[in-house]
Structures are given as structure tokens and as C-alpha cells.
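Example for tutorial group B:
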């Protein structure tokens, strides 16, 4: 099968289109014919060696954790899905070796959710990692009916999902974004504010008593976040480990089929939309990584895969 591989850590230039053996299907696993793979910052950070202290790697490795595709083979003791089912997954494994930037990928069945019919392959591949990060962070922080939530990075890949999910949970949302993106953030359901100097004052103008929850998806916002928290408020971040030193929660997303099914339901009921900014064919995965590294897109970057 064709796959994007790399044999040493580095920038996107180390990625190459290779011919590799199809992965074996173990017990409790399925093999997916990949239709699309989402691109996330963690992908190029792994390729650069950023997660080497945390995860083992087997070179040559195939990057990618977000996937959407069709089940083409089921392993022993798999009854939850069948050949031909359309699925999506946050396909993080315990090691870095066989990812989603390939024609085929194997995954534990416990990571899979069914693809919502209203999503195309690109949208489905764009949802799992970012959507689960948003959902799990908000639920861990206790966001619910009547909460006032400040979302840092409300126009970003995770933040844009967090705004919509928080609204669906019954919260009022204030979202930081550059002024040029305020219309989009407002359309997602948040009250936009410009980030940067004076942020705490701007948030306090909208929420004089402070906010119940701050969800940080960008980093470097600890001081203004603490300044706008109401008494008993909760702070979480996916980008700043120092949040734990201030009584907050540092959050790392987990693969979870049930949570992903919740997101699929939100899609089906029209409460969650997925914007794809740009897609690239598999052979141009390095360009997709560079586009994601640029960080100025409104929507997700995806890679499409042909059989």
C-alpha cells in the first residue's frame, strides 16, 4: 500500500510517499480503507520529535491520528462493526508507527464511531481529535446549562468546536480571536473579544462577575485567565502545563468511541458544523503539514486518500 513515511525526526521535508506492507489485523482490531486523514499540530510535532520523551517510535513511521474510512476487514472477536461500515476515529495508538496517512490503517474497535451520513469524508476526518479535545476538556471542567465560558482560540481547530459544543451544553460563550475572525466566531455562537493587552478588561466588560470556566486552546494566557475567573471558577488548558501549578487542569485527549458518538449526534442534529479549509492529496502531505503549521486557516486541513 502507499503511505507517507519518515525515517528520522525533522520538518515536513522528511516525509516521503512510500510503498509499505499492509498492516496485520489483530484480535479486537479492524482494518480501514482510509478515505481521508485530518492534519493536527500534534502530527508535525511528533514528526519533529516533540513527543519522543513520551512515546516509543518504530522507524519508518507513518504519521496521523485522525481518520475516516470504510471497514474492510475485522479481526477476531469484533462484533461492533462489519465490513463496509463507514467509520471515523481518533486513532492514537500506544506507539508511533502505523498512522492514518496511508491507504490502510488498523485500529482497535473501541476507538471507532460511525461516520455521520451528512458528513463527507473530509469533514469526518477533521472531527475526531479536535472534537474530542474540545468535548473532553469542557466536560472535565464541568461546563453545563448556565455556565459562562471563556474559550481562548475560538477560531482555531479545537476552539471552534469548543464554542459550538459549549453552546450545545447550554453555556454562554465568550471567545478570543483576532478581529478579522470575529464574524465567524459570532456565527459559531460566541461573543468575540480581541486577544492581547487588555484582554481581562474586555472580558470583564462582558462578564462583570467573571466567568465560570476558562478553556485555553492556545497557551500563554494564564495571567488574564486567572484575572477573569469567578470565585470557584475552573481553568483548563491543552497548551500550557503550568496551569496545574495554579490549580487548573492540564488536559490530554483520549480516544473514546462513546464521546465520538456524542459528537456525531451533535452533527446530525445540526448543533456542530465542521469547516474544512483546505484538502491535499496523499502525495502532498508535506504541504498539508506546512499549511497547518502556518496556523492562519479558518477550518481544518485534511489529506485525501485514493485506493
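The residue assignment follows.
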Amino acid at each position: 500500500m502507499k503511505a507517507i513515511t519518515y525515517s528520522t525526526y525533522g520538518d515536513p521535508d522528511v516525509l516521503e510517499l512510500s510503498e509499505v506492507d499492509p498492516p496485520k489485523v489483530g484480535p479486537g482490531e479492524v482494518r480501514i480503507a482510509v478515505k481521508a486523514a485530518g492534519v493536527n499540530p500534534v502530527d508535525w510535532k511528533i514528526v519533529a520529535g516533540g513527543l519522543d520523551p513520551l512515546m516509543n517510535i518504530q522507524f519508518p513511521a507513518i504519521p496521523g491520528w485522525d481518520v475516516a474510512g470504510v471497514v474492510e476487514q475485522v479481526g477476531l472477536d469484533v462484533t461492533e462493526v462489519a465490513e463496509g461500515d463507514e467509520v471515523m476515529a481518533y486513532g492514537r495508538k500506544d506507539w508511533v508507527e502505523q498512522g492514518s496517512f496511508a491507504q490502510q490503517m488498523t485500529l482497535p474497535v473501541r476507538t471507532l464511531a460511525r461516520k455521520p451520513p451528512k458528513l463527507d469524508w473530509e469533514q469526518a476526518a477533521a472531527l475526531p481529535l479536535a472534537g474530542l479535545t474540545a468535548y473532553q476538556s469542557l466536560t472535565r471542567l464541568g461546563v453545563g446549562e448556565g455556565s459562562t465560558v471563556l474559550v481562548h482560540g475560538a477560531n482555531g481547530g479545537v476552539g471552534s468546536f469548543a464554542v459550538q459544543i459549549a453552546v450545545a451544553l447550554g453555556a454562554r460563550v465568550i471567545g478570543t480571536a483576532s478581529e478579522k475572525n470575529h464574524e465567524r466566531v459570532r456565527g459559531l455562537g460566541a461573543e468575540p473579544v480581541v486577544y492581547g493587552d487588555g484582554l481581562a478588561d474586555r472580558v470583564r466588560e462582558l462578564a462583570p462577575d467573571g466567568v465560570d470556566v476558562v478553556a485555553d486552546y492556545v497557551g500563554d494566557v494564564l495571567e488574564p485567565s486567572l484575572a477573569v475567573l469567578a470565585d470557584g471558577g475552573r481553568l483548563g488548558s491543552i497548551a500550557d502545563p503550568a496551569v496545574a501549578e495554579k490549580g487548573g487542569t492540564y488536559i490530554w485527549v483520549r480516544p473514546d468511541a462513546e464521546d465520538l458518538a456524542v459528537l456525531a449526534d451533535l452533527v446530525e442534529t445540526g448543533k456542530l458544523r465542521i469547516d474544512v479549509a483546505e484538502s491535499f492529496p496523499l502525495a502532498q502531505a508535506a504541504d498539508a503539514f506546512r499549511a497547518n503549521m502556518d496556523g492562519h486557516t479558518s477550518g481544518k486541513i485534511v489529506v485525501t486518500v485514493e485506493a
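The two ends are 9 Å apart (CA to CA). Compare this with the pattern of hydrophobic and polar residues in the output above.
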